[in-house]
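QA checklist item 7 of 12: single-chain prediction sanity check.
[x] sequence parsed
[x] length recorded as 326
[x] structure emitted
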Amino acid sequence: MQPRNMSMSGAVDLAAVKAAAEAREKAEHARAERERQQAAGGAPAGNAPLVIDVDEETFQQEVMQRSTEVPVVIDFWAEWCQPCKQLSPVLERLADEYAGRFVLAKIDVDANQMVFQAFSQQLGIQGIPAIVAIVAGQPVPLFTGVTPEPQIRQVLDQLIEVAEQQFGIVGMPAAGGEAPAEREAPAGPHDGPLTAAAQALDRGDLGGAVQAYENVLAEDPGNTEAKLGLAQALLLRRIEGLDAQKVRKSAADDPKDVAAQLQAADLDLVGGHVEDAFGRLVDTVARTSGDDRQAARVRLLELFEVIGGDDPRVVRARAALSRVLF
């Protein structure tokens, strides 16, 4: 799984492209401080509990601050919620089994309504149990409802991989637990150029990022990380200087204005309205022909690249696109 500036369910937050460097820097500072404390004889991080009860007063410290060192998985639950009683023991057992790769934070929604409402409004949570991760201070919606354990393991593995690859957050082994196996691999021929391209993207040098990713793809056309980075850089470059209000008005006033629809779709995606962006472009493909249809189709495929082909919304949009094309 390649690192992405998005949630685990695919919801794009391209502000995270800019925030990623800051988050990584925070994580590095946190790890350095932790190592300093351990060198000075402080308590090792491995002694920290793996399952914690969190309330509104402790949320900032126990969840947000802790998330710079280890992924924090929030279990929103309530005493009256029977599905919660089925899911919570599974999560607690997995927290012990993963031995410090993530911390499970349990939040009673009845006792901490402000926290739950804030997440509900931001992430569109409509019920419990709801499972959300926090990585370097950024929310990552995982799943809702009782979920089979194999699927939960898959989600956790993906979360841990994204936290490590994108933010450099690897967690710490619990007391008595074994450290996670090292996954060091020989440096690939494009690791240096990819790092330089990602750094250019983080600091807003979109032209430099585009050129760097294109250079990698010229030598390795199948490099998925370069494809993702290029798609993000091109998207951010396209929306530079756009008047969002003007674009949206033009798109609403004239559905046949293909250029406005393409720009509005870009803005939709950057704003996190993934399905709106896809739906707008599928509708544009359906109502147009010739070069206009081709332009809308190509833009939709470019946005698929930003989200990732395994995202359920991409799968649904691909099916919708096939229906209007064939």
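[x] summary fact logged: The chain has three domains: 15-167, 188-239, 241-326.
[ ] second reviewer sign-off
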